[in-house]
Structure prediction request, 102 residues.
Amino acid sequence: MNKLIFLVCSAISFNTAAQVLFAKADVKAGKALVEQHCMSCHAASYGGDGSKIYTRAARKVESPAGLVAQVRACNTNLDLKWFEEDELNASAYLNQQYYHFE
Prediction:
């Protein structure tokens, strides 16, 4: 039971932290990163300009924390060598452009 409470509290505080970090993020820098590193890969998987990955009905990302986690996973899996600041900038851009989490 204590473990469950810890996990719930962690998730809540991470969501709050993500929202605060989005407010300080450089959306313009995030847009440049997404356009340079993400769209061609997503276009190969989803066709067109690649934005369908963000707008599809069955998208995986459902929260600000989930968005940051997904960007971080792509950074790690593709060995982009982004700093945490880059991940947050890209997440903030994606949130502003596609997800609209508050």
User: Anything to note?
Assistant: The CA atoms of residues 29 and 102 lie 20 Å apart.
